[in-house]
Amino acid sequence: MRALVVGSGFVGRAVARHLISRRDEAVLASRTPPLVNGSPGSLPWVPLDITRPGAFAGVLADVAPDSIVLVHGPSDVTWCESHPEEAMAGHAGAARLVAEAAGDRRTVFISTDNVFDGTATTCTESAVTRPANVYGRAKLAAEGILSTLPGAVLLRVSLIYGWEAADSPKWLNFFASCVHRLRAGETVRAPHDQWTTPVLVDDVAEATRALAIARVVPPLIHLGGPDRLSRADWAADIAAGLGLPPERVVAESRAHGRYANRPASTCLSSEVFATHPATASLRPRPVGEATRLLLARHLTPNARPTT
Ligand SMILES: NC(=O)c1ccc[n+]([C@@H]2O[C@H](COP(=O)([O-])OP(=O)(O)OC[C@H]3O[C@@H](n4cnc5c(N)ncnc54)[C@H](OP(=O)(O)O)[C@@H]3O)[C@@H](O)[C@H]2O)c1
């Protein structure tokens, strides 16, 4: 299988690496080359601004992929709030250009739990969408356009986490940010009233591949991790994993921090994921197991702080 992966950020790179590890071909596309620890990575990459008319069709013709994975930005909820037109162009505008060119290729669109307003404890695929922020509205508009494609599958994913280096050029995912700030001696403040079902980025990559190669896919599928927890509890688990005392995490209301424009409960039910033949064999990892794995893989015992 040969895939064109649009977006070479945190999730796009993980998807490409996973495909290549499974002996598929993957070509990343974005405006600037992917950077790994500040240096250009070794992953195949082509330049693309997906919002530029004709650009996606040109790259599609050059790369000639069997499937397309759309995992481009903008992905920062706060940035989208202050740049609504760019957010809509980046997702809905881009989706229109993809819809014109993709034909019947399998097109996996990585969408978000922000299409919901966050008032329900958890959301199934049949829950009513009602985005509470610009980012969610832009992603939902893109979903509507792409859903008209015969080969499209909309994969809505909860908060994605994994290892990122402390000097990564953009904001870090919540897990990586907590690890690096705690190790640097900072106290982490996190909301006790914002709930999520986090998913390890490796598990998202595996799910994306499964949907890209399956003969039959559902048009819409949710992927949330098996744990529903508050950001404060999650940060406390990470501190414990680093051997740090619980006082290093301060729980606060989400109204006080950078999470003010986030829905209170961004939790997805994965019942379809657990039963559909395309994904039923996959088991998204619990947060505790993934935390232990990531810390063991990336931190030597000597590098762990003791206070
Ligand atoms: N991270 C999560 O927790 C999460 C959860 C659910 C869904 N998602 C979805 O997954 C996608 C990627 O998330 P991420 O965390 O990997 O974001 P990210 O690290 O910010 O990466 C975004 C990538 O998109 C590229 N991009 C932005 N505008 C583009 C354009 N006009 N044309 C081509 N490429 C463009 C960026 O590179 P350039 O700026 O160089 O072009 C970058 O490579 C987002 O759409 C998000 O909605 C993410």
Question: What is the secondary structure topology, with strand pairs?
Answer:
Layout: E1 2-6, H1 10-21, E2 25-30, E3 35-36, E4 39-40, E5 45-47, H2 55-63, E6 67-70, H3 77-82, H4 84-101, E7 106-112, H5 134-146, E8 152-157, E9 160-161, H6 174-183, E10 188-191, E11 195-196, E12 199-200, H7 201-213, E13 220-223, E14 229-230, H8 231-241, E15 249-252, E16 265-266, H9 271-275, H10 287-298
Parallel strand pairs: 1-2, 1-6, 2-5, 6-7, 7-8, 8-13, 9-12, 10-15, 11-16
Antiparallel strand pairs: 3-4, 11-14
Helix pairs in contact: 1-7, 4-5, 6-8, 8-10
Question: Which structural traits does this protein have?
Answer:
307 residues; alpha/beta; Rossmann fold; 7-stranded parallel sheet; 3-stranded mixed sheet; 10 helices; 16 strands; globular; binds NADP nicotinamide-adenine-dinucleotide phosphate
CATH superfamily of one domain: NAD(P)-binding Rossmann-like Domain
Q: Give the DSSP E fraction (strand runs of 2 or more residues).
A: 15-25%
What small molecules does the structure contain? Answer: NADP nicotinamide-adenine-dinucleotide phosphate
Secondary-structure arrangement, i.e. CATH architecture of one domain: 3-Layer(aba) Sandwich
Which sequence of SSEs, written as H and E, runs from N to C?
A: EHEEEEHEHHEHEEHEEEHEEHEEHH
Q: Based on helices, strands and strand pairing, what is the structural class?
A: alpha/beta
What fraction, in percent, of the residue positions are helical? 25-40%
Number of strands: 16
Task: Tell me the radius of gyration.
Answer: 19 Å
Biggest sheet, strands in spatial order?
A: 5-2-1-6-7-8-13
Low-confidence stretches: none
Count of separate DSSP helical elements: 10
From the 3D structure, determine the CATH topology of one domain: Rossmann fold
Spatial separation of the terminal alpha carbons: 48 Å
Large-scale geometry: globular
